[in-house]
Amino acid sequence: MSRIQFQQSLEELKENLLVMAGLAEQAIQRAIEAYRTHDLSLCELVMRSEMAINRMERDIDQRALDLLAMQQPMAVDLRFILSVIKINADLERIGDSAKSIADRVRFMLQMPPVELPVDVPRMAAMAIDMIRKSLKAFIEGDAELARTVLTLDSAVDAVNRASYASLTKVMEEQGQVAPQALNTLMICRSLERVADHATNIAEDVIFWVQGADVRHYKSVKAAEREAEAAGTKE
Question: Has residue 227 got a pLDDT over 50?
């Protein structure tokens, strides 16, 4: 394979990954719209899209592995292919999260509707924004944009913690709506995982573009904040 053909193959790999990304993002949007509108047909669309996402994951992995085996790329091209493999896995898991949300919505549609003290669509919008920014960073090879995604994850975590507190209180005080609250809590948990996967994608973009390993960014920042707080107390 010539260098030109190799670069074309890399571009095709990138395009295929972006198609899969579109499917994963659409699945999340449909699952949340099903939650908002109580539309069972949207749940069915999410179930079908998961199979398409799984097929694409296998195909993209195989293409990436073939390029590694045939070309033995170096430096930035090697990092690109490795990042594609990792991003591919995170996109598949976003599809899994969409299916989990759709499953919860289907259970909830069998129960009386109730008003709960959480804003699931808002949390979903935050997570989807992270997906879009991380993928834009991938398309443009923009490590700085990817770094902004890392800072957004803590906001989603905060919303998830607040939702957990509110919903567990509902379950303790209003046993008759505990099933609805529990399913909504699990939906929030799935959205928190979506944000985590978006963060992973952003980390992989930084690795591809700059060769920097920024995994466990949140843990490092949390430790720095704790150390700073301890110093302030002293």
Answer: no
Q: How far apart are CA 208 and CA 80, in angstroms?
A: 5
Q: What is the pTM of this model?
A: 0.90
Give the domain ranges of the chain.
Answer: 3-224
Taking only the tens place, the pLDDT of each residue in 10-43 is 999 999 999 999 999 999 999 999 999 999 999 9
Q: How far is CA 172 from CA 78, 86, 175, 181, in A?
A: 52, 40, 6, 10
The span from the CA of 88 to the CA of 129, in Å, is 18
Cβ-in-10-Å burial (0-12, 13-18, 19+) of 159 comes to: buried
Distance CA 28, CA 125 (A): 10
**What's the DSSP call for residue 159?**
H
Cα 234 to Cα 229: distance, rounded to the nearest angstrom: 9
Q: What is the third-level CATH fold of 3-224?
A: Methane Monooxygenase Hydroxylase; Chain G, domain 1 (1.20.58)
